[in-house]
From TrEMBL:
<dbReference type="GO" id="GO:0008295">
    <property type="term" value="P:spermidine biosynthetic process"/>
</dbReference>
<feature type="domain" description="Orn/DAP/Arg decarboxylase 2 C-terminal">
    <location>
        <begin position="137"/>
        <end position="331"/>
    </location>
</feature>
<dbReference type="InterPro" id="IPR022643">
    <property type="entry name" value="De-COase2_C"/>
</dbReference>
<dbReference type="InterPro" id="IPR009006">
    <property type="entry name" value="Ala_racemase/Decarboxylase_C"/>
</dbReference>
<dbReference type="InterPro" id="IPR005730">
    <property type="entry name" value="Nsp_de-COase"/>
</dbReference>
<feature type="binding site">
    <location>
        <position position="239"/>
    </location>
    <ligand>
        <name>substrate</name>
    </ligand>
</feature>
<dbReference type="GO" id="GO:0045312">
    <property type="term" value="P:nor-spermidine biosynthetic process"/>
</dbReference>
<protein>
    <submittedName>
        <fullName>Carboxynorspermidine decarboxylase</fullName>
        <ecNumber>4.1.1.96</ecNumber>
    </submittedName>
</protein>
<dbReference type="GO" id="GO:0009089">
    <property type="term" value="P:lysine biosynthetic process via diaminopimelate"/>
</dbReference>
<keyword id="KW-0210">Decarboxylase</keyword>
<keyword id="KW-0745">Spermidine biosynthesis</keyword>
<dbReference type="GO" id="GO:0008836">
    <property type="term" value="F:diaminopimelate decarboxylase activity"/>
</dbReference>
<keyword id="KW-0456">Lyase</keyword>
<dbReference type="Pfam" id="PF00278">
    <property type="entry name" value="Orn_DAP_Arg_deC"/>
</dbReference>
<feature type="binding site">
    <location>
        <position position="275"/>
    </location>
    <ligand>
        <name>substrate</name>
    </ligand>
</feature>
<dbReference type="InterPro" id="IPR029066">
    <property type="entry name" value="PLP-binding_barrel"/>
</dbReference>
<keyword id="KW-0663">Pyridoxal phosphate</keyword>
Length: 374
């Protein structure tokens, strides 16, 4: 079918754009010898895992369910990190994952030897205590009091015995200069341990496929670490795989006015694009401008009872009409993996746009999907 025939709301993922992003990432791998993994927490559309797996080294998980999904649908390497593993799940995790990253001295003492006996490569997540975030403490693993990672003062010969890898993840939607700064802190604080490991994982948050990303600096950082410590280097971006690769199609349901013009959509910030409220951020809308930039300004809002279910104020060159389709851009990442059925609002359909422009619905959701979650 064509795009205009798709149901709404609907996440529409461009296979062409996914492939373009993967080609960029694969080029980084080829030029540096590093290994890049899909961080499933940002993008878990397993319909595309065979394509992703043909370019990248595998996947990384944050839970048992993600670990199983990566093992069953992707193949390749399968890594996992969790702040704390559940005892009743750990044996199954060992079945699916070849690299196990432990978060704390307590987790290392509890699970390190067990993972090694299963033939798994064990790593420990460190906290470089080097914040590079500005204004988003919720996404800063190095914020004071962070539960993520082990600080340098907590490491010891006993703790590191049998540990093959060092993992750090401190970035969020950032450029390579933030990685360079973080690496400096890692080398200053953890140098006694870096030469003895087989792999060093730079984590995620690298916006490698963004147009202004400094890939030359990233590649210099990778080469330096590989040459200096003789270790394999891993990166595990999520957003970079699907950046700008999807849209959310939504229709105008009704118009109203209360001091300004309001359009109620069948797409919801609270249910379908929760980062709009959580980060918060303003999603780009095709053909629209900032408030007052064009002739007609509307507040776009969702259909739930939450008063704050507001996507934002946008201006248009025409008056919106019920039934009109709007296209929110960059909606592949942190949408499908975070959406919910608050108020009994249905989940958006998921569709793929093939490279020839043909679209096919991958999944549609109904009442039973809502009911099964309750």
């Amino acid at each position: 079918m064509r795009r205009e025939e798709l149901p709404t709301p609907c996440y529409l993922i461009s296979v062409k754009k996914i492939r373009e992003n993967l080609e960029i990432l694969n080029g980084v791998m080829d030029r540096t010898g590093c290994r890049i993994l899909l961080a499933q927490k940002a993008f878990s559309l397993y319909a595309l895992y065979p394509l992703i797996g043909s370019y990248l080294s595998g996947a990384t998980a944050s839970s048992l369910f993600e670990a199983r999904l990566g093992a069953e649908e992707m193949g390749g390497e399968n890594h996992i990190f969790s702040p704390a593993y559940r005892e009743e799940e750990f044996d199954e995790i060992l079945k699916y994952c070849d690299h196990i990253v432990l978060n704390s001295p307590g987790q290392a003492r509890r699970y390190k030897d067990r993972a090694r006996r299963a033939g798994r490569s064990v790593g420990i997540r460190i906290n470089p205590e080097c914040s590079t975030q500005e204004g988003h403490a919720i996404y800063d693993p190095c914020a004071p009091g962070s539960r993520l990672g082990t600080t340098a003062g907590q490491l010891s010969e006993e703790l590191m015995k049998g540990v093959e890898g060092i993992h750090f993840h401190t970035l969020c939607e950032q450029n390579a200069d933030a990685l360079e700064l973080t690496l400096r802190s890692v080398e200053e604080k953890f140098s006694p341990w870096l030469s003895g490991v087989k792999w060093i994982n730079f984590g995620g948050g690298h916006h490698i496929t963004r147009a202004d990303y400094d890939r030359e600096l990233l590649e210099r950082c990778i080469r330096r670490v590989r040459q200096r410590y003789g270790a394999e280097v891993y990166l595990e971006p999520g957003e970079a795989i699907a950046l700008n690769a999807g849209v959310l199609l939504t229709k105008v349901l009704e118009l109203g006015r209360n001091g300004l013009d309001i359009a109620i959509l069948d797409g919801s910030a609270a249910c379908h694009m929760p980062d709009v409220l959580e980060m918060p951020y303003r999603p780009p809308l095709r053909g629209a401008g900032k408030p007052g930039e064009k002739e007609y300004t509307f507040r776009l809002a969702g259909p739930t009872c939450l008063a704050g279910d507001v996507i934002g104020d946008y201006s248009f060159s025409h008056i919106l009409t019920p039934g009109e389709t709007l296209v929110f851009e960059d909606m592949a990442i942190y949408t499908m993996v975070k959406n919910n059925t608050f108020n009994g609002i249905g989940l958006p359909a998921i569709a793929l746009e093939e490279e020839d422009g043909d679209c096919r619905v991958w999944k549609q959701f109904g009442y039973e999907d809502f009911k099964k979650r309750l």
